[in-house]
Each structure stands twice: as structure tokens, then as C-alpha cells.
Design goal:
eight-stranded parallel β-sheet, 220 residues, TIM Barrel, 19% strand, globular, alpha/beta
């Protein structure tokens, strides 16, 4: 099972004073993706990094940049993030007047398309787009800040989406983000997740042993 699980460390928990070095260390430690949380202080109550930072980080690794846009309106920034080096661009259906048009825009730049659902967001927001996307990100905390506690009430939604993916025989990564640690990662995997986003656990547990923490999350 563990070989199919991808780990996407969230750089929200990294040392921003040496972000490039942190990403090189994650690369060497066996991360599959690099998860980049982009917040605008409007769609969510926090502000993080923009496309210029991603552009500067892009040369330090060949790993997939898994960029989660928590910004509204989202369409006007997609070109910037695509050109900065994002590989997967994930957005929230609540952040666009037309989910279909946003999907088309991301594909126009030859990027993989992700859609994210907040804990209270209904599957109905994305059900008709499963055939057009590459990744679904389930938030297991309210988006905005690192270090929050995992919300187990999202697990039924995760299971239901996994059933839909399986029944329709689709190739979609099912990602979970929010409070993922060594205690709950197996529950998330059992519910259908194959990509785990983790920040605090990867950067802070076991004295910050990135390789050990990534391995433990993958094999739990």
C-alpha cells in the first residue's frame, strides 16, 4: 500500500528565511510533491506567497509543485502561477464564477487541474467535473493557518469521492490536507486518500528529521 502513497510536504511550515534550502532538503528526503499554499487574506484569513517566490524556488528542484490557490477571484492569477512553475494548480469552486472556465484556463497552460473542497463544501460543487480534473483536495481543517487539528468529520466525504473515482474508473489523485499526522494518516489513507499533505508533522516531529517523517507518513 505504502508505495502508492504520495507525500506532499507543505512549505507553510518551513523556515521562510531559508526556503530554497528547505525545499532541497525535502527533495533529498523523498517528498513526492512540494505543496505550496497561496492565500490572499480575502478568500481565507491569511496572506502567504505569490508567483514571484515560486518562480525563484522553481530552479532548486524538479519535484512537482502542488500549488493550492486559496484566492478569489482566482482566474486572473492562474497565468502568473502557471508561468512561475506550478505543475498542479488547485482552486476552490467558491472562488470562481465558472468552475468549467477555470478548468479550461488551467489546461490552456498545460497544467494539471485540482479542485479543493473545504470541510463544509458539498461534493455537488464538483461532481460534474470529475472527468476533467486530475486531483481533488479535501481540506480536513478550515483553510488559512498551519498547525490546526484534523477534522475527522470530512472522512465520509473522502470515502464517497473515492467511490465515485473507482466506480467511474478515473485516474484522479485524492489528496487530503489539514492536521495530518502519524496518528490519523492511516485513517485518511483507508478512507481513500493517496496524497497526504503535511506541514507541522514533517518539519517538527522527530527533531525535524524530514526523511524519517516522510517515510513514517507513507508507511503508516
Amino acid at each position: 500500500m505504502s508505495s502508492n502513497i504520495k507525500i506532499s510536504p507543505s512549505i507553510l511550515s518551513a523556515d521562510f528565511g531559508k526556503l530554497g534550502e528547505e525545499i532541497v532538503s525535502l527533495d533529498k528526503a523523498g517528498a513526492d510533491y512540494i505543496h505550496v499554499d497561496v492565500m490572499d487574506g480575502h478568500f481565507v484569513p491569511n496572506i502567504t506567497i505569490g508567483p514571484e517566490i515560486i518562480k525563484k524556488l522553481r530552479p532548486v528542484t524538479n519535484k512537482t509543485f502542488d500549488v493550492h490557490l486559496m484566492i478569489k477571484p482566482v482566474d486572473k492569477y492562474i497565468k502568473d502561477f502557471a508561468e512561475a512553475g506550478a505543475d498542479i494548480i488547485t482552486f476552490h469552486p467558491e472562488a470562481t464564477p465558472s468552475t468549467k472556465e477555470t478548468i479550461k484556463l488551467i489546461k490552456k497552460f498545460n497544467k494539471k487541474v485540482g479542485i479543493s473542497l473545504k470541510p463544509k463544501s458539498d461534493i455537488g460543487l464538483i461532481d460534474k467535473y470529475f472527468d476533467e480534473i486530475d486531483l481533488i483536495l479535501i481540506m480536513s481543517v478550515e483553510p488559512g493557518f498551519a498547525g490546526q487539528k484534523f477534522m475527522p468529520q470530512v472522512l465520509p466525504k473522502l470515502k464517497k469521492i473515492k467511490e465515485i473515482i473507482t466506480n467511474r474508473n478515473l485516474e484522479i489523485d485524492l489528496e487530503i490536507d489539514g492536521g495530518i499526522n502519524f496518528e490519523n494518516c492511516k485513517t485518511a489513507i483507508d478512507a481513500g486518500a493517496n496524497v497526504l499533505v503535511s506541514g507541522s508533522t514533517i518539519f517538527k516531529k522527530n527533531n525535524g528529521d524530514l526523511k524519517k517523517n516522510i517515510s513514517l507518513l507513507r508507511s503508516s
